[in-house]
């Protein structure tokens, strides 16, 4: 059964392309390499889980090589300093391990430990115009939510940094949420322009969207780590209940699934449907006149039961942080070796000094 949220027109096109991509991956997983990641700005949440995390593990299990980036430098795009970096980095590692990311097959690493990756930013910046950077709708949205009074150069250029993240390991599949589509388009442009100018080095990566490419948070806007509107994967059952009780709904007592006109109610319905693997219209119809209180009870039970095994595994890993951090150290070494090789190729292609 397929559960579909109502995506924007751009996401609809990308969704169709995703279906074709899925088919090609399942035919020959060894031809694909995934790069994807998150900023260590807070705990991973259900938006990540349904938007991209599940796809990461599924692709790994299909035999695709997976790179997961903990984008520590990018924390500084919208704030002055990176707070609680160690805690958030540990949290990201715990979430990935609990969900089934296997360090023997997948590489988890941080920006700051892979200098050669960051060096790709220089040639890549020369391939894009300032106007292109300025029109990126996701960057505009993030500026609107930024905690800084002035917009930093890093905010405008981080989509180019993201191109370096993807292309350093020649990633050709990027499982992401809808907000990342403009960035991925820019990565494709950079790969194409580099290849035209200097000869074929990079693939043009494709986005892989899930059925929930834009999950809304408890305030009815995109669920985000930094917006105090998320339901963290690592939250307790009680915390989850409290967060869902505080979610925005509306005055209409009869529960329906209508994302266009009732975003708050519909995102709760969708959350329950995703956890229960059911159709959101059916879930809404069942609650019907029960109102927001019944809806929230259904969502809380569905989320807590769905996440119980993940949370149990997460707690086991949390008891062994020495092991968890060793996974990152090994991943950093692997990623650094890959980045060194790519940087070498780039220098060769560009005819720069070595
Ligand atoms: P921040 O608020 O710090 O930017 P975030 O919650 O937006 O955090 P990111 O680290 O920016 O998370 O995003 C990591 C990945 O998760 C990206 O691929 C992004 O598209 C996806 N993602 C984030 N939020 C959602 C969401 N609400 N629905 C679907 N996918 C999401
Ligand atoms: Mg974000």
From TrEMBL:
Belongs to the class-I aminoacyl-tRNA synthetase family. The keyword Transmembrane helix does not apply. PANTHER family: TRYPTOPHAN--TRNA LIGASE, MITOCHONDRIAL (PTHR43766:SF1). Residues 1-15 have a biased composition (Low complexity). Gene3D superfamilies: HUPs, Tyrosyl-Transfer RNA Synthetase. Keywords: Aminoacyl-tRNA synthetase, ATP-binding, Ligase, Nucleotide-binding, Protein biosynthesis. GO terms for molecular function: tryptophan-tRNA ligase activity. The gene is trpS. Its EC number is 6.1.1.2. InterPro entries: aa-tRNA-synth_I_CS (IPR001412), aa-tRNA-synth_Ic (IPR002305), Rossmann-like_a/b/a_fold (IPR014729), Trp-tRNA-ligase (IPR002306), Trp-tRNA_synthetase (IPR050203). Residues 1-20 are annotated as: Disordered. This is Tryptophan--tRNA ligase.
């Amino acid at each position: 059964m397929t559960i579909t949220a109502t995506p924007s027109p751009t996401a609809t096109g990308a969704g169709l392309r995703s279906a074709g991509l899925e088919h090609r991956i399942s035919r020959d997983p060894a031809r694909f390499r995934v790069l994807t990641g998150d900023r260590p700005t807070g705990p991973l949440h259900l938006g990540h889980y349904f938007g991209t995390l599940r796809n990461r593990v599924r692709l790994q299990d299909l035999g695709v090589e997976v790179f997961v980036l903990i984008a520590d430098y990018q924390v500084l795009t919208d704030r002055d300093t990176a707070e609680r970096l160690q805690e958030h980095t540990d949290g990201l590692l715990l979430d990935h391990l609990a969900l089934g990311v296997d360090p023997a097959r997948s590489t988890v690493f941080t920006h700051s430990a892979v200098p050669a990756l960051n060096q790709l930013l220089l040639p890549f910046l020369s391939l894009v115009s300032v106007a292109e950077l300025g029109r990126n709708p996701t960057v505009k949205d993030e500026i609107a939510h930024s905690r800084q009074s002035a917009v930093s150069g890093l905010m405008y250029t981080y989509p180019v940094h993201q191109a370096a993240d993807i292309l350093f390991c020649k990633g050709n599949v990027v499982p992401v949420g809808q907000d990342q589509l403009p960035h991925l388009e820019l990565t494709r442009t950079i790969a194409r322009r580099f290849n035209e100018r200097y000869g074929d080095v990079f693939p043009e990566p494709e986005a892989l969207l899930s059925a929930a490419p834009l999950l809304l948070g408890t305030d009815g806007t995109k669920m985000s780590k930094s917006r105090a509107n998320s339901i963290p994967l690592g939250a307790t059952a009680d915390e989850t209940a409290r967060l869902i009780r505080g979610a925005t709904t509306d005055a209409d007592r009869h529960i329906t699934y209508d994302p266009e006109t009732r975003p708050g109610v519909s995102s709760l319905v969708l959350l329950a449907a995703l956890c229960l693997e059911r159709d959101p219209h059916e879930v809404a119809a069942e609650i019907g006149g029960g109102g927001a209180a019944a809806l929230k009870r259904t969502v809380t039970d569905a989320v807590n039961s769905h996440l119980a095994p993940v949370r149990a595994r997460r707690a086991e890993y949390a008891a062994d942080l020495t092991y968890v951090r060793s996974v990152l150290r090994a991943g950093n070494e692997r990623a650094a070796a890959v980045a060194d090789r790519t940087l070498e190729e780039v220098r060769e292609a560009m005819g720069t000094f070595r």
